[in-house]
Amino acid sequence: MRLFLGSILGLLALLMPGYSEADEAGIRKGVLDYLAQQRFCMDSGLRRQDRRHWVDLEDADGGKKARALEAAKVIEIGRKEPPASLYKDWAWVRVPDEARQLFDEMDQLCFGRLELDKIEDFTIPAADAMGRIVSIVGYFYRVTNTPEWARTEGVRKAFPELEKAQSSVLKEEIKLVQTNRGWKYIPY
User: Fold this and answer.
1) CA 41, CA 176: separation in Å to the nearest integer?
2) Are residues 64 and 103 in the same domain?
3) Which of 57, 89, 119, 152 has its CA 20 to 30 A from that of 141?
């Protein structure tokens, strides 16, 4: 009976996916590949309507952010001329051509690179409900290659998340799936 149970447990161990150093190296490469495609993004305080950017200068947070970005020469604040659907204390903002690549489709301000500090932990690769081999990875990263304007005192004070990102290591968790080309990021 013991021999029979031992055989069954041995077969189950062979059939179940396990951990290997190759998995760890592949997962590390998957996280590095993901980070290589990312930039640090934060709320710019700007809003887009009718293909123009607008800012509420009376809003303590948005106005402070806009004025800091204007001082850093990332944007130019124009005269107050809001569309009818916006409040009267809004002003239009011009984003110079050289700064357009800093804004994503959600009007977040994106720049710099994310550099892996260390992988904290990851789940042992296992099949999910769709049969894919996945692992959830917790890691720490730093923001590097920040432009000069993002290091100015006014911008750092207006964007507390930027101050934190430049002075500490940040933690994140992602889900990777094993493919025929290695471990790749998939959204949750």
Assistant:
1) 21
2) yes
3) 152
Of 68, 85, 109, the one marking the end of a domain is 109
Residues 117 and 182 in one domain: yes
pTM for the predicted model, two decimal places: 0.75
End-to-end CA distance of the chain: 44
Domain count, the chain: 2
Residue 98 DSSP code: G
Beta-carbon count within 10 A of 69 CB: 28
* Ranges under pLDDT 50 in the chain: 3, 5-6, 8-16
Per-residue pLDDT, 82: 55
pLDDT digits (tens, 9 = 90+) for 125-145: 999 888 999 999 999 999 999
> What 3-state DSSP class applies to 170?
strand
Nearest partner of 155 among 40, 52, 35, 34, judged by Cα = 40
Position 97 in a domain: yes
Tokens 């968790």 -> residue:
173
Inside any domain, residue 1: no
Task: Show the domain range for 72.
Answer: 47-109
The tokens for 54 are 């607008």
